[in-house]
Structure formats: C-alpha cells, structure tokens
Amino acid sequence: MRKLLAALLLVVAAACRAGGQDAPAALAAEQGATRQILVMLHLAAPHFRPDVSYGANYRDDAGRLARRRIAEALAREHGLTILEGWPMPALNVDCYRMAEPAGAEPGKIVEALSRDARVDWAQAINTFSAQANDPLYPVQPAALQWQLGEVRKAATGRKVLVAVIDSGVEADHPDLAGQLAFQENFVDGQPYAAETHGTGVAAVIAALAGNGVGIEGVAPDARLMALRACWQIASGATRCNSFTLAKALNFALMHGAQVINLSLSGPADRLLRELIDVACARGVRVVGAVDAASADGGFPASHPGVFAVAADSSRQLSAQVLMAPGRDIPTAAPGARWGMVSGSSYSAAHISGMMAVLSELRPGLTLPQVRSSIVVQPGGINFCATVTRLTGKCTCVCVEVTPPKIVRLP
Fold it and tell me: What is the pTM of this model?
C-alpha cells in the first residue's frame, strides 16, 4: 500500500514528460517505408560465428565478403543503395537494408529480388506502433487483482531472462536499478535513451520489490534484456520497424531469452514471423499486445505461437486471447518518476511477468502445456489458481482447479 501511495503522489509530476527526439535513420525508414526494403542472403550455418561485439563481423571473412559482393551486385542491378547489413544467425541469413531509387514502382523490385536465386527473400520495411493509451487515468491498483503478494510465496521469476523489445529503459530508475542483464540499442542515428513506453513496460514486468518506493513488478526477481528497437517521437508516441525489431529479436534468441515481450503491433511481416517461429520452436514464451483496431488483433499477436494479450473484453476476441490488467496501471517513468498508464502494452507486460514466474516454477513445459495451465475465469486470469495448478500447492485462497492434462509430445 505504501508503494502505491508513493506512485499516487508522483503521478502529476510524471505527466507527459514524453517529448523525446526522433531517431533520424529509423524515422526516415518509417516515413519512407515503401522506399526501403530488406534483402536476405543465405548464410551457410556451419561456417559462421558472430564475434563478441555482435556487430556484423564473422570469422569466415571470405564468406562475409562474398555475401557483401552479392549484395553489391544486386544493388547495382536494381539501382538500390545499400544502407546497412546485419547478421541474423538465428535464421542463417545476412539482412541488408537498401533504399529503392526515386520513382521505383512499389513492390516491383521486391518481387524481382524474391525470384533471384541468390536471395532467400526480400520484403518492404513495415512500421509498428506501441499499444498504449494516454497516461494519468484515475488511480486503480489493477495488479492487485492477481494477488501478487501471495503468488510470490511460490515464485518471483528468479533468474528468468525476459527480453523487453521496446523503446529505451531507464536502467538507473529506483524501481529498475540492477534489474537489467543487457542493455542494447538497435536504432540507428541516436544513442540509447531512457523513454516512456519501454521504461513503463519493463517496470510492470520486473520492478524491484521491497525497496520502499514506487511499484512492484509481477516478477521482481526476473532479469531484463532492455533491447531498444523502438523510439519515441516528438508527440510521445512510440514507433519501430521491421529491421530494428528483427535485430533485437535475433539478439534475444542468440543470448538465451526465455520470455520475449512485444508490446507493439503492425502488419504481418515475414522476417519477424520467421524469427518468432524460431523462438517458439525453442520453447521461448513470446507475448504480444493485441491491437483493438485490427480485425485479427494485429501482428505479432496474430501469430499462432504468440501469447496474445488484451486489456479488456469490450469487443469480440479469439478464445486464445488472454485478458490482463491494462487500465489505470501505476508504473515507472523516465527521470526517476512514476505515472499512470493504460493499454494492451501493459497487459502484455503483466503476462510476460506471469510467464517469468511460471518459467521459474516449471521451466520444462512446452508452449501448449503452458497455455493449458493458465486458469481463465470470467473476470480474467486467476494467477493464484494457475500457480496452484502447476505446483499442486495452495497458493492463495484455495479453489478447486482441474489439473492440466500434460501430453508427452514426440
């Protein structure tokens, strides 16, 4: 209660410090998404190893140079300009970001490249947005619906690695100090910055417990990968694109993320879909925010392996969509402040925190087993009953729950 009051007192001070600066290269990609494309060149799996800087250098220099020469040849043939190359070891491809020539007919060059035997595939760069609403709703401690104090008697997400692929996270915020295992920037043209959306999402997942200030995360003992693939524009909104998100997803997969939080939405995207396919095949819990304005919930929430999350049930949603607190949520804000936020971004963050707790309890469960273990009731997820179902021990007020049927998969 003391922590909630602290958040209350600081709400007004936290209002709309979200001005931010545009990231020039990334924003240019957003504004000219039809003018920039991604070209994937196959990387022979047995012959690569990224160096420790994760920069696009390989020990097989001959292979790297050969792929670069192919990219340069493709650029000459189609009048393209190579802007950047990046290795995607998780998919065994090198990804090149290229600019189309002025006057090029949208889609024509991508179509031609996709037929080229030297190219795995090519695609346009898509734009993605964070799924958040205005801050400063009247105070309502939504996270208390989950009885987190009782749940923590069973697990706290200890040592579970959660990738927050978002805008920048304030690493030295009082509620996040010491919580980050990684802090990386995949947005060109701007140094790493602490931003509103990423900081708020990270705190919902893993804000410190028992430090006497602010809030407490769903999984306060989880370890965070703060992967900046999105940027805050002048209006305070958050934007990302296919390339920045793919770089961050690849990093998360190569560095052992057990949970990946994607509090964002956009159009279907092959590069991101392939990376999420790899994550699901490895048993990584990928969580995506539902876009209420999209008929299918938007991508990546529409991916069949993603745990799609919405903030309310005011519209007809798929039975697979999970409902979680997403309105009037106190959370951290840049500048060692706190504020109130709403939106499915923060609902997804709650589920990512829950996934960290469940991963600590039963790390070996398959994704279908995790999904079948979640106890869903008319009011939403019963977190306590879910923990009871997994552990067989009464965690909160004991309710009768049906044990999940664990199916041994081939």
Answer: 0.85
